[in-house]
Amino acid sequence: MAQSKENIPRHVAVIMDGNGRWAEKRKLPRVMGHNAGMRSMREIVRRSSDMGIEYLTVYAFSTENWKRSEEEVGGIFRLLVKFVDSDLEELYRNNVRVNVLGDWRKLPAAAVDRLEKTIERTKENDGMCFNICLNYGSRAEITDAVRELAQKVKSGEIEPEDIDEQAISGALLTGKFDIPDPDLLIRTSGEIRISNYLLWQIAYSEMIFTDILWPDLDPDTYEELVLSYKDRDRRFGGRNK
Ligand code: IPE
Ligand code: IPE
Ligand code: MG
Question: Tell me, what CATH number does 204's domain have?
Fold first, then answer.
């Protein structure tokens, strides 16, 4: 696993999709798919950290996911509590720092409690930064950032001319946590869409869409996908040759 750091993306963002279909294929309740998805997430976090990825950002629950049944939504949050209870010490030992992005304080109390505990326990760690997007929506994030900047103009703290791309990036949740833009975005389950994820931040990210359902994504395959990044020719509008 001794890869040169130049070959791997600094920041990998993941849309963990396909839990429901994984369960349906097995005639299991959807929540069993989310359970398998949590197991997959645990493995991917471990492998990412072993590979030396600096930032891993996962989409765990969107602002739109509240449209699902109460049973499914409740099940997802119960699994999140279970994940933290079983994995927090391992994350801590592996020097992983956990951030949570989104309006996660609106989650059920048990989940909020565990998330607070996780953030507090890992805040001094300086290994991989693991960002969990929970009750996250990119448009909501951008809206909040715009409102914050407007307030600053209103109070005279800044002038309208001070609002540049850097100021906007800094006012986003990722900016507040000093998370750079993703180099690579991976979405599982065959859907080729972004679903309100990191819209501003992925302006120049490389993207991989795989048909593999999230619970089926094993760490070796994940590592191969991440390493395929080295063959991408990132031009950012310029010319490399
Ligand atoms: C992703 O899996 C997990 C969440 C959105 C919480 P899905 O539950 O969306 O799985 P599919 O897309 O229905 O297969
Ligand atoms: C995106 O998946 C959100 C998460 C993975 C948490 P969805 O399954 O909610 O996306 P759509 O509805 O298919 O676009
Ligand atoms: Mg889905």
Answer: 3.40.1180.10
Q: Which of 14, 21, 214 to mutate to test the pocket of ligand 1 (most atoms within 8 A of CB)?
A: 21
State whether residue 57 is helix, strand or coil. strand
Q: Is the CB of 139 under 6 A from ligand 2?
A: no
Inside any domain, residue 94: yes
Whether 51 is in a domain gets the answer: yes
- Asked whether residue 174 is domain-assigned, the answer is no
3-state secondary structure of 198: coil
What value does the CA radius of gyration of the chain take, rounded to a whole number of Å?
18
Ligand 1 neighbourhood includes 61 CB (under 6 angstroms) = yes
**Tens digits of pLDDT across the chain (241 residues):** 455 667 899 999 999 999 999 999 999 999 999 999 999 999 999 999 999 999 999 999 999 999 999 999 999 999 999 999 999 999 999 999 999 999 999 999 999 999 999 999 999 999 999 999 999 999 999 999 999 999 999 999 999 999 999 999 999 999 999 999 999 999 999 999 999 999 999 999 999 999 999 999 999 999 999 999 999 999 999 988 7
Total number of domains in the chain: 1
Residue 172 in any domain: the answer is no
What is the best residue among 188, 194, 195, 209 to mutate for testing ligand 2's pocket, by most ligand atoms within 8 Å of CB? 195
- The range of the structural domain enclosing residue 122 comes to 8-137+180-228
CB atoms within 10 A of CB 156: 7
